[in-house]
């Protein structure tokens, strides 16, 4: 039987520290008349930690997710978190490339992953499945006065080459969505620079430095906000921003809304419906 | 060292011709005690001890900047991870214990329920580091926005049983 469903793999952070991201996705899906459904019984992708100390376990955790999604009749598995996306799509790549490995791990884990599903980054999903025309048709409050820097971070685009949906050095999918909403986007130098979120808890001196450089470049270009699609980036750019701005002498706050929060605003939704009250650095009210 | 010994992250380090694009693209190069292209060079020469004892392999942020810049498609980030695991397998003490302890805490936590409990990970990590007040200013801020949950997430159906059998096997 052919898999047909579209479902979301939310990942751990969208249920806790970035629940406002999930809220905005749900709202945006509603406006776009897309069925909103999360895959069932998913487990954590292991993030950077598991693959750092046990690469086989990392593959098995992700095989479980891929196999379950396949069993649930899912065709498009939409992944909003860049870290989860990177783990899932890299595992999909490794398992499909190496049949022997897939067979061996299927046997060991008691699953039967065949490779019938497509893991999609949420940006890829919006641009290449939903389409910019459809997005444009729902815009009721164009973000005319907004100057936006689109920040992709490291893991959204740096996947095994055959799996990529956008250019790695200078991606444009998020820029295209943002422009469709009526906003103006800037060309800037830190689109894909790592923010150091994996070191946010452990070596915060490094993540402070990396976040500082990103905020600084955006702020010099006088943007109204940096929009992101990765919950790790959002937490890292937003939570400690006061301290980082002090170190880097950046005067004005730089709000960091999720791309789906911007979409929601352009679709005429209220900030509260999009969880914007949970962002630390608040967006200026739209005129 | 035989990096080709496994089918996971299969890499041929001998393809490296030392152009050092990996090192020039690395965002945290100044924090490293050995540059990425040197790590690859020593690995291909079999001088493993000198690589496994570096801070570099632990401090690597896993951002893949090096890997996408490599003209020979060597997955340098994947190799960094392999080297971490190799160091652990050989009983070599991680040069950056703080980073290792975080990874270990995270992995242990998600194996309990199948999902991460952020507050517990932060707390347990501080306990392991014997630095109870690290990042302590973040917590109230995040509580205020209801971003940290005191209660752990509901266990994933069937996960515990599955992982128990799996870990027993290996």
Secondary structure blueprint with pairings:
The complex is a heterodimer of chains A (287) and B (170).
Chain A: E1 5-8, H1 12-15, H2 19-31, H3 47-53, H4 55-71, E2 74-79, H5 82-97, H6 99-109, E3 118-121, H7 122-130, H8 132-137, E4 147-151, H9 173-180, E5 184-185, H10 204-220, E6 225-228, H11 231-238, H12 241-248, H13 259-266
Parallel strand pairs in A: 1-2, 2-3, 4-5, 4-6
Chain B: H1 21-25, H2 36-45, H3 48-52, H4 56-59, H5 65-69, H6 76-89, H7 97-113, H8 118-129, H9 138-144, H10 159-169
One letter per element, helices H and strands E, the order of chain A comes to: EHHHHEHHEHHEHEHEHHH
Largest interface: A-B, 56 and 54 residues
Q: How is the CATH topology of the largest domain in chain A named? A: Rossmann fold
Biggest β-sheet: strands ordered side by side in the sheet of chain A: 1-2-3
Q: Describe the biggest sheet of chain A?
A: 3 strands, parallel
**How many DSSP helices of chain B?**
10
Mean pLDDT of chain B: 89
Oligomer type: heterodimer
